[in-house]
Amino acid sequence: MPAVAGPSDRHRYLGALGSMVRSRLFTQRPFFLAHAVTFGCNSRCQTCSYWKLTPRMKEDPSTEEATALLDRAYAAGMRGYYLFGGEPLVRKDVGRLVDYAKQKGFVTTMNTNGSLLGAKAASLTGLDFAFVSLDYFTDYHDEIRGRPGSFRAVLHGIDRLREVTKAKVTLVTTISTLNLDAMEPMARLAKEMDVSISFNSVEPTLDFGLTDSELSPNFSLGLSAEQLRNFYRTLLRLKTEGYPLIETEYVLRDFVEGRPWRCEFPKMFVYVSPDLKIYTCDYRYGYDLRKGSFEEYFASAGFRRHVQEAESCNRCVRTCVRGYSYAYDLRIGNLLRLIDDARDLFGQHDKTPTPWGPASPISPTPGQVPRVRGS
Ligand code: SF4
Ligand code: SF4
Question: Hey, what CATH topology would domain 9-346 get?
Fold first, then answer.
């Protein structure tokens, strides 16, 4: 595994912690650069519209533009780098971007559909955390994702990534009406693989560049209010039964009890599109970083308004947004749980290939009964 020169891991993690504390106590400005590094995607998920933007890949930033963005984010005090897309692994230079960020001093995180992980893992030695989408525990995942062979490719990719890098892996399962029965089997799969897992329910989004008339199909595949309540109850049950969910029991209990909360997301993450525009979490406010700077944006009335409106928004049903907000708020009850849970994420040592890997036939244990569609 080629070593990536640069600050030590300890230095980078302390730097990220310091940037969060600075934001929390003084600046209320984001410390995580969330960069959608490409408009391209190699899947056609039923629950997402983003793949329709693939022809816009010609607007993707060059390597130099993407690394210059990292320089600017670092100068603006950010110490976390979160790559997503589209599918970030469709970029040829993705490993170079991760290495550059790590050498600079960022903690590096990637959200990927995992289908190209096997081929690209060797170039990802600079990656700290990988969030890998997996929506089902059988090949039915391929149907949801619109990409034949991706279920096995994801499992093989995770094995490969853990073999050649130190990246900590979290499965991300998006629950819609297509896979309501996947929660417990997926939690069990994560436990067997010795990785963490995060569940989100699908929600309506307006993706970059789409208009109101092209709203994402999530509207038709989203959960009803009752299904959503069951979703949170099930998450809490799985958590208390010891499955490696990254959401804390504290956060999940508040979901179940329907407590209002304060969203701190805009103070933590800044979203940048492939064509270097800043968008708010509802993708409605654009600020062009090719014409201005992070500092100008953070000083703008638009940013301040967004921060203020977020505090009482409460719109997200996503567990991660609430989890991040509670961490930022330094809620003691949640922090104690977080420290406890961190062992699940940081204690991933077992790199034994999953029994579901491509070399082995899938052997669902009792309860992991593949769901039969259309019958
Ligand atoms: S959910 Fe991810 S993998 Fe699926 S189409 Fe959207 S961007 Fe691509
Ligand atoms: S709760 Fe509202 S402000 Fe916060 S991330 Fe969700 S949509 Fe944005």
Answer: TIM Barrel (3.20.20)
